[in-house]
Automatic annotation (TrEMBL):
It is a single-pass membrane protein. Gene3D superfamilies: 1.20.5.3310. Keywords: Cell membrane, Membrane, Protein transport, Translocation, Transmembrane, Transmembrane helix, Transport. The Tat system comprises two distinct complexes: a TatABC complex, containing multiple copies of TatA, TatB and TatC subunits, and a separate TatA complex, containing only TatA subunits. Substrates initially bind to the TatABC complex, which probably triggers association of the separate TatA complex to form the active translocon. Residues 126-135 have a biased composition (Basic and acidic residues). This is Sec-independent protein translocase protein TatB. InterPro entries: TatA/B/E, TatB.
Length: 146
């Protein structure tokens, strides 16, 4: 139904309202509640009109629902010919090559000149397995792994 209230829950609310307010006062409570809701709606509509009037004529088609992030993105970022916004994502993906960027960062971290050939095994020198350490050489230490 409305506000995610099922029919059984609605019946329970009606029975609870009859028990709390009694059958003789229940119509008056419902009328008062409806009057309050109408006043709140009228106040809200008045406030919206005041804001639109203060913003000026350039915001004449402004809707408060457009402030919802999903609606804002759908309205402002997606064009008519590209309903799902895939064109902009493809353009962005073509300007940014993740593999190239990661290779440059890895080369910079390992001290390899950009564009230099990688070791034959495809791994950096410090990760290749050696049989024995040189005399007096400390074993490799990875601070990120500890």
């Amino acid at each position: 139904m409305f506000f995610d209230i099922g029919p059984l829950e609605l019946v329970a609310l009606v029975v609870l309202a009859v028990l709390v307010f009694g059958p003789d006062k229940l119509p008056k409570v419902i009328q008062d509640t409806m009057a309050f809701i109408r006043k709140v709606r009228a106040f809200s509509d008045s406030a919206k009109e005041d804001i639109r009037r203060e913003l000026g004529p350039e915001f004449k088609d402004f809707e408060f629902e457009d402030l919802n992030p999903k609606t804002f993105i759908r309205k402002n970022l997606m064009s008519d010919e590209d309903e799902y916004g895939l064109k902009e994502l493809k353009d962005l993906r073509n300007t940014f090559d993740m593999r190239k960027e990661m290779a440059e960062v890895t080369d910079a971290v390992n001290g390899v000149e950009p564009g230099a050939a990688a070791p034959a095994s495809g791994t950096p020198d410090r990760l290749t397995k050696r049989e024995k350490l040189d005399p007096g050489e400390a074993p490799p230490f990875d601070s990120d792994a500890t």
